[in-house]
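Revision sheet: structure tokens.
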Amino acid sequence: MAYIYKDRIKGNTVLFKPSKFKTIVIDAVNEADPQQKILSTIDNHEIDDCIVKIIYSVKPEQVYSVNASQIKKKLTRTQFSSITPVVVQNPSRTVLPELDACLYNSPLKALDKYLELKPELDKPELMRKAQLLIKELN
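Predicted:
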């Protein structure tokens, strides 16, 4: 369906077709080939004559494996498109303040405190191995 727009200033009549807006969000963080994931996801959407926004997420080490020009080629059937990469940082490790003081005094005490927080680990075996390593280093 087309619409007629009359320009009030110049008096020109313009025929236009309303656009569809599409936002495609792609999570490629856990993908071995993020480029392929992005391109295949775009293929799965109807983008002809639409205004399309692509938002894709990758890890910092995956940034250079994504080729923006190939993505732009896929978007040539659109009226307008934008590509927005989101670089997802690796979650930082939890810092345990109670370990800091122990670590400087004794690595075995620090390991003992850490293993108290991790019940799934074999504490007696790991403590035994740590003691052997410390003896070997001394």
